[in-house]
Amino acid sequence: MSAFEKSSRFGLVYNKLLCEKLVRDLTKYVKTSEYGKASELLLIIVENGAIPISQVWQPLIATVRGQCGDSQVDALLDTIAQATKKSPPYTASMERIYNLLDQGDLANANREAMMFIEDHGNKLAFAHGYRGMLIACMREVDIRRKFEDSVFIEPCDFHVFESSRVLELWLTKDDPDLTSIFSLRDAESYLRKALVLDPGIDMFRAFHIQVLIALGMVEQARNELETYYRDHPDIHILRMLISVDSRDTLGQQERYLEYFEKDPYAPAESFQATLERITASIDQTTDTRLVERILKIVVDRIELGGYGEETSWRCFEDLLSRLKKHGHWVPVEQIMKERIGWWESFYFSNSSSLYKDFDSLGLELRRRCRDLLLSDSNIDMDD
Question: What's the CA angle centered on 24, arms 21 and 28, to 5 degrees?
Answer without folding.
Answer: 135
